[in-house]
C-alpha cells in the first residue's frame, strides 16, 4: 500500500509539473505573441433580424502559435488576464478593430458597427476612456461605429469608478453592449443605473429554442423587458432557421450565429460588404 501510495504521489506530481510547465510555456509564448505578430482579429457578422442586412461585426481574437497552432481565446485570455498581458493585448485589439472599421469606410463600403470585447481587467483601469479615445483618434473612426462589450459582473464590481468610466464612454458617443446577458447576476438594478445600448442574449438561452419552454419564456421576457427599457437586443449563437423565426416574431432586433456566418478574417468581411453594396 505504501509503495502504491508513493507511485500515486509521483504520478500526481508528474502530472502537475506537466500542467505547470505547459502553463508557463503558454505564458512565455503569449509574452512574445504581440511583438511576433501572431495575434489577429476575426470578425463575426451581426445581422438585422427583420431586413437580414449586415449591420455590425464582433472582433474576436485569434492566436496562431507557430508550434502549437491555433490556440482558442478561452484558453489564452484567462492567462492574459492573470498576467496583466491583457492590457497591451486589449489595447492592440481596440486599435486594430478601429483601424479596420475605418479602412472599410475609406474603401467606400457601407459602414459597420464594430464590437470589441473588454476584459474586466481592462475595465478596472482608471484611464480606460482615454485609451479608447486614443484608439479612435489613431484610426479616425467616429465613436458611433464603436461598440464595447461588457459583462454583468463588471458592472456589479465597484460602483463609483465604474459609473464614471461608463459615463465618460457614453459622453464620447460610444455604444455599450452587455455581453452574455442572463448568465450573470439576478439583480437588474444596473440596467437603469447605466446607460447601455444593447443586450446580447447569451447563447445558452438560444441553443434549445424553440422547443425548450423555459428558454422560450426567458428569451421572450428579455426581449420584452429590453424593448420597454429602450434597449436593443441581439441573440447570440443562432444556429437554426427555427431560432431565427422565433426571435424575429418576438421582436428581437439582431442576431449573430453560425446560421448566417462564422467569425472570419477581415478580407472576407470586405467581400461580404462589397456584395451588400452592389445588392
Ligand atoms: P463571446 O464574447 O461570447 O464571443 C462569442 C463566441 O461564440 C465566439 O467564440 C464565437 O465564435 C462563438 N459563436 C458565435 N456564434 C456561434 C454559434 O452559432 N454557435 C456556437 N457554438 N458558437 C458561436 P470565440 O471566438 O472562441 O471566443 C470565445 C470568447 O473569448 C468570447 O466569448 C470572449 O469572451 C473571449 N474573447 C474573444 N476575443 C476577445 C478579445 O479580443 N478580448 C477579450 N477580452 N475577450 C475575447
Ligand atoms: Ca462578446
Ligand atoms: Ca457573448
Ligand atoms: Ca462568453
Automatic annotation (TrEMBL):
Coiled coil: none
Alphabetical UniProt keywords: Cell membrane, Membrane, Transmembrane, Transmembrane helix
Protein name per its UniProtKB record: PAS domain S-box-containing protein/diguanylate cyclase (GGDEF)-like protein
Cellular localization per UniProt: Cell membrane
Segment forming the signal sequence: none
Top-level taxon of the source organism: Bacteria
Included range, full protein: 676 to 954 of 959
Domain EAL: 23-277
